[in-house]
Specification:
Layout (H helix, E strand, L loop, with lengths): L4 H18 L18 H20 L1 H13 L3 H10 L3 H21 L6 E3 L1 E4 L1 H23 L9 H10 L1 H7 L10 E5 L5 E4 L7 E5 H8 L11 E3 L1 H9 L19
Parallel strand pairs: 3-5
Antiparallel strand pairs: 1-2, 3-4, 5-6
C-alpha cells in the first residue's frame, strides 16, 4: 500500500489554509453566499465537518454506516440538510467541530491495517483513497469560500494528488450519468503551478486531455465550467468527459455556469 502520510500532510495543510480563511471572520461574514446555490460560507465549513463525521463513522463502525447509505438513497436533500444543520450553529462551535473531526479522522486513517476497505457512498475505498477524497473536497469547498470572500487560494504541489484522484474517478463520472465508461484509459497531461509536467495514463492513448492542473482540478470538482478553463480534449470520449467530470460521490452535480468567473 502506498504511504498515506504525504496525502495526510497535504490534507492537513489545505485544511489549515481554509481554516485561516474563516477563523477571523465576523459572524455576518459566515452568512455570505458562495458560488454554490443556497450555500453560505458556513454551509461550506459545515459540509466539511459533516463529511469528516460520516467518514469517521465509516471507519469506526462500518456496519452502522450502511444505514447512512440507505438513508442517502431515499433522501433527496441528504447532503444539503446536513450542511444546513451545521451552518445553523454558532461559528466558533462549528469551526471547533471541524477542527476536532478532521484531526480524529487523520489519526484513524493512519491506524488502519493494510488492505482495509472503508465503505462509502459509492465504491469502498482504501485509507489512502479516503484521504485523497478528503483533500479533494477540502480544496474544492475551500475554493468556494475563497470565491465568496474574494481571497486568494494559492495552488501548490498538492494539486497533483487532486488531479490524480480526478483521473481515477473518470469511470464513476460516466456511470452517474448512465453512460458506459470508455474501454481504454485516457492520457491526461497537465502543467503544475510551478511548471511541473504531470502525466496520467498511457502516452499513446487516442483520447487525451491537456491543460493546467489548476483548471483540471477546478473542472473535476465542478468549481468551473469547461468553457472557463484552458483544458483541451482530443477524441469524442474525452470531450464528453470534460462535460461530466465529477470527482465527488453522489448524483450528478450542477457544476457552475459558463462565464461565472473571469480569471
Amino acid at each position: 500500500m502506498a504511504d498515506i502520510e504525504p496525502v495526510l500532510q497535504d490534507l492537513a495543510g489545505e485544511s489549515a489554509r481554509v481554516d485561516d480563511m474563516v477563523a477571523l471572520l465576523e459572524p455576518a461574514e459566515w452568512r455570505w453566499d458562495t458560488p454554490a446555490a443556497g450555500w453560505t460560507v458556513a454551509h461550506q465549513i459545515a459540509h466539511l465537518a459533516w463529511t469528516d463525521q460520516k467518514s469517521l463513522l465509516a471507519v469506526r463502525r462500518p456496519q452502522d454506516f450502511q444505514l447512512e447509505v440507505r438513508t442517502a438513497m431515499v433522501t433527496d436533500d441528504f447532503v444539503d440538510s446536513g450542511a444546513a444543520a451545521g451552518a445553523a450553529k454558532e461559528p466558533g462551535t462549528l469551526l471547533g467541530e471541524w477542527r476536532q473531526g478532521r484531526q480524529e479522522l487523520a489519526a484513524e486513517l493512519r491506524g488502519l491495517p493494510v488492505g482495509t476497505r472503508v465503505p462509502w457512498f459509492g465504491p469502498t475505498m482504501s485509507p489512502g483513497s479516503m484521504a485523497s477524497a478528503r483533500l479533494m473536497e477540502t480544496w474544492a469547498h475551500g475554493q468556494d469560500v475563497a470565491d465568496a470572500l474574494g481571497l486568494p487560494h494559492e495552488p501548490g504541489p498538492w494539486l497533483r494528488e487532486i488531479a490524480r484522484f480526478g483521473v481515477r474517478t473518470r469511470d464513476f463520472a460516466f456511470g452517474v450519468h448512465a453512460l458506459d465508461p470508455p474501454g481504454a484509459p485516457f492520457h491526461v497531461a497537465l502543467t503544475g503551478p510551478q511548471g511541473q509536467y504531470w502525466e496520467f495514463g498511457p502516452t499513446d492513448a487516442e483520447q487525451r486531455i491537456t491543460g493546467s492542473a489548476w483548471d483540471f482540478c477546478l473542472l473535476v470538482t465542478q468549481r468551473r465550467h469547461r468553457d472557463d478553463t484552458d483544458l483541451r480534449a482530443t477524441g469524442e470520449d474525452a470531450m464528453t468527459w470534460l462535460g461530466i467530470a465529477q470527482a465527488f460521490a453522489g448524483p450528478p452535480g450542477n457544476g457552475r455556469e459558463a462565464g461565472q468567473f473571469h480569471e
